[in-house]
Amino acid sequence: MRRKIDRFFTSEVFISFFYRLILFYSWTFRLKIENDKDWMDFIKNGGVVLLCTWHQHFFSAVRPFKNYKTLHPSIMISQSNDGEIVAKLALRNGWNPVRGSSSNGGMEALRKMIKNLKGNKLAVHIVDGPKGPSGIVKPGVILLAHAANAVIVPFSVSAKKAWHFNSWDKFLLPKPFSKVFLRFGEMIKFDRVKDRETFESQRMRLEEVMLPSLRV
Questions:
Q1: Which CATH number is 2-213 given?
Q2: Which of 31, 98, 120, 212 has the fewest CB within 10 Å, making it most exposed?
Q3: Other Cβ atoms closer than 10 A to 36
Q4: pLDDT in tens, the chain (216 residues)
Q5: pTM of the predicted model as reported, rounded to 2 decimal places
Q6: What phi, psi does 9 have (nearest 5°)?
């Protein structure tokens, strides 16, 4: 029975319906995008950009991220059944899903992400996904930025009216017709380092920059 349910939710029929539902729902948002010009100009001039956010915020970025689909951004998605749904949705949105996580297939996925980021100049990373803990930036984003010589651009989502789920990430779902803000932060460049202490200080610095946007 479980397999039949999983097959249904990962079927092309359901994915097509669900994707259209997400777009329709997202079109009700009164969306304002802030501060994306600098990093887009940086890419046009040959730079490499790694966008990153909390798991709590990624849903609201689905529709606006269609704006960047010509750059074929990659995103790492877990190999779970839920990840299969998200990966198929990402493909429809013009993203390039790379399957893996810190607990399963992480190193191979990281290598693919590095290759894609170097080639296409843009990738997206969920810093605390797929299972948290919330508010902790995992080291993969720093490793990825180092390997691809990329700048990190944190982004966040806020809404005037929203629901927060009772989940580990307090998942954010803006209410229909709410004013929604997608804000990109400043570009952050971390020099590649070898010692663990400096690496950890970089991870903590990124965490400090991103924490104020997280509702816990």
A1: 3.40.1130
A2: 212
A3: 17
A4: 667 777 877 899 999 999 999 999 999 999 999 999 999 999 999 999 999 999 999 898 899 998 899 999 999 998 888 889 899 999 999 999 998 766 666 788 889 999 999 999 999 999 997 888 999 999 999 999 999 999 999 999 999 999 999 999 999 999 999 999 999 999 999 999 989 999 999 999 999 999 999 976
A5: 0.93
A6: -75, -15
